[in-house]
Amino acid sequence: MRSFSFVFYMTMALVVSFFPLYFSAKGYSKLQIGAIYSIGPFIGIAANLFWGYASDKLQTIRKVLIVMLLGQLTTTIVLTQIDAIAWLYVAMVAFNFFHTPINGLNDSLTLLLIRRTGKSYASFRVWGSLGFAFSSLVFGFVLQAVGAENTILFTIGTVSLSLSLAFFLKDRAGSGAGPVRFSGFFDIVRQPRLLLFLALIFTMSFAHRANDGFLALTLKEMGASDTVIGWAWTASSLSEIPMFFWLSRNGHKFKELPLLTIASFFYAIRFFLVSVVTDPIWIIPLQTMHSVTFGIFLVTALRYIQQLIPDRFRATGQAIYNIVWSCLAGLASGIVGGWVFDGWGAPAMYRVAAVSALLACAGFLLTSLLLRSREG
């Protein structure tokens, strides 16, 4: 499971960090590359639901992952044969249909595994961070030497390795209760506690996704070199690792809502500070605040949603969570953040992100206090 996470996040790093360079090397314009990347969140909404439902209905995650990785490998190979922009859009729709939900299913399988073994989610997720950081650094140096046009070949290699490892994953244990009836699931997703939690996750993720989408552009406008931009991303991924190790040993000692309150508060501080600095080199240390923002947020939010959704609906529940924090928050931050960035500049956009995180902080704090008063 840890090896699979390591290699899958190597692929993630290639897709996030180096696919734009590959498309640029192929001669596509910035506008065309932007359109290619807008496909992911749209397709992710339907793809997450489809594959999550299929996994719960069939009561297997491993087999569904194998099918998805085969589809991802096929579409990656097809990308090497495409030059026409229209066919590229079609191929990227297919690629994202198979690629985007893998992260959610990987998390679902990890959550079911830790339920059986008593281990922590963070002790597994840290290997994803290591894979992402390793891939960013190693492939960065290699592609600089051999050319960004070879990105797809390395992606074929990492996807093939993920597919090989998937055959050795231990699948979810069957419920033994017959076929899954999804009428019960709809009762679960309508419960106010879950809806409030997803609304707060969306508010916090809006801030997180705004930084994901506009950090490189912000740094470019500040006059940063490609090296500084690369180190900014590497700093954030490496900073997660000690936090995941700490949470794997100590996270269970703290309740989830207070931890999410802390993560939101530091998101607000982090993005406000980004809005006021003028030297791009200061962005690198600010990116290390990723540890106390995203590091806490990711592990703790998954712990909390594990309590709200039964294991028999694990993959579908995880799909809905991923749609909210990744797809919907990504679309909203792209539209609103782009509008604010265009009209008032990067500092204003980061202040909007800081306000969004502060609202999430207040929401998590009030929810925590309300639940504590009811329990008391």
TrEMBL record:
Entry keyword set: Cell inner membrane, Cell membrane, Membrane, Transmembrane, Transmembrane helix, Transport
Domain (Major facilitator superfamily associated): residue spans on this chain: 3-351
Q: Which SUPFAM superfamilies match?
A: MFS general substrate transporter
Asked whether the keyword Coiled coil is assigned, the reply is no
Query: Which branch of life, at top level?
Result: Bacteria
* Subcellular locations according to the entry: Cell inner membrane
GO cellular component assignments: plasma membrane
Spell out the InterPro entries in the cross-references.
Answer: HcaT-like, MFS_assoc_dom, MFS_trans_sf
GO terms of molecular function = lactose binding; lactose:proton symporter activity
The cross-references to Pfam families, in alphabetical order and at most eight, read: MFS_1_like
Q: Where are the transmembrane segments?
A: 7-25, 31-52, 64-82, 88-114, 126-146, 152-169, 190-208, 228-247, 259-277, 283-302, 323-341, 353-371
> What topology in the membrane does the UniProt record assign?
Multi-pass membrane protein
Database matches in NCBIfam families: mfs
Q: Which PANTHER family match?
A: 3-PHENYLPROPIONIC ACID TRANSPORTER-RELATED, BLL5896 PROTEIN
Mind telling me what this protein is named? MFS transporter
Naturally occurring in which organism (per UniProt)? Paenibacillus flagellatus
